[in-house]
Amino acid sequence: MEKERQENTFTESQTVIWFVERRPSLARLIIDDRIYNKVEQLLGPGFIWCLSDGNLYVGDTQWHGGAGESQILQHIKIAIYPDAVTKDTGCLRVIPGSHIPEYQDKLKVLRQERGKSQLDDTSNEPFGMPGHEIPAVALESQPGDVVFFSENLWHASFGGRSGRRMFTLIFYANPDTEEKREFIRQFQKRTKAMFHPHETLLNSTNPKIRDLVSVYSDL
Fold first, then answer.
1. Domains and CATH numbers, the chain
2. Mind spelling out the 3-state secondary structure of 127-184?
């Protein structure tokens, strides 16, 4: 993180994409059985690698989540916190059931009130309460824990110290239909990182890693 900001003083939230891919000691987490096997249980065989990122956060992360529509291709996001985080010190909070499109649709007011999302305007209180009071489940984490979740869930974080650390790994289910492969192609056009595997993975000699990125040569 220091290298990416050219050793400038840390003053605001920082995100570095292709985070674990840059260091062999971190990249091995992608195929660590404690992660890999759980992802396979959740997404099924043939799942693929998408991206990782590293983050240093300043302030709260307000509520955000799914778009209120069914997902063409399911995913799992894995968050790892090197420091202990609790409900009041920046752990991930989720609204259970909010991955369901009908429920997601009712939560859109969190980002649409007065034309601004709660991410942009913390005075936005469509349910009559600030973001940190919205009923939710806090996924408290100790070093060594791994948090599995879907970004289709509405999620947020409150009360964390400036510079709290989190990095994530993102996997997607097997794109085994033309509709799913087209979903990836369109995503690739819109972003510079999502579904653009780092060269260290494309050139890897590890068969597990090669399997996770082999789909991209056929798109």
1. 14-213 (2.60.120)
2. CCCCHHHCCCEEECECCCCCEEECCCCCEEECCCCCCEEEEEEEEECCCCCHHHHHHH
